[in-house]
């Protein structure tokens, strides 16, 4: 059970690695938290399905997801802000694999996990160097 909690918490943070909080992302994150009824305090609750949907909501608001599917070109542009040397074909593979799923929350979650597994944490964000605290 503890390992599930830590895995979900890790994946929750991975969402913010690739939906990195620019000022626009922060606004989207706050709007999504409000829409989903989530609070900013404390750790995400791995038992709450709304937590898994936060990444999808942010990506939709930022144009990285439309109709429940990741938009590879938008995802490529965003990931390259943090990983300038990222292989576009690998980003596209993550989007394509995730887009095979039907639930938008699963699509976003799968894409973000794939990107994190493939590229690791960001080297820098669009607004300067990143730190783990910057993802929360």
From TrEMBL:
Listed Pfam families: PBP_GOBP (PF01395)
Superkingdom classification of source: Eukaryota
GO terms of molecular function: odorant binding
SMART domains according to UniProt: PhBP (SM00708)
Record keywords, A-Z: Signal
Signal peptide: 1-19
Acetylation is among the record's keywords: no
InterPro entries: PBP/GOBP (IPR006170), PBP_GOBP_sf (IPR036728)
Gene3D superfamilies for the chain: Pheromone/general odorant binding protein domain
Full protein name: Odorant-binding protein 10
Biological source species: Encarsia formosa
């Amino acid at each position: 059970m503890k390992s599930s909690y830590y895995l979900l918490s890790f994946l929750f943070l991975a969402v913010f690695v690739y939906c990195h909080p620019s000022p626009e992302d922060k606004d989207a994150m706050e709007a999504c938290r409000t829409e989903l009824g989530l609070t900013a305090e404390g750790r995400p609750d791995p038992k709450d399905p709304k937590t898994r949907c936060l990444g999808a909501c942010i990506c939709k608001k930022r144009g990285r997801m439309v109709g429940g599917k990741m938009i590879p070109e938008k995802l490529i542009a965003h990931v390259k802000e943090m990983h300038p040397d990222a292989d576009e074909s690998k980003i596209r593979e993550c989007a394509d694999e995730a887009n095979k799923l039907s639930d938008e929350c699963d699509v976003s979650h799968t894409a973000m996990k794939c990107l994190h597994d493939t590229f690791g944490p960001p080297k820098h964000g669009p607004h300067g160097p990143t730190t783990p605290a910057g993802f929360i």
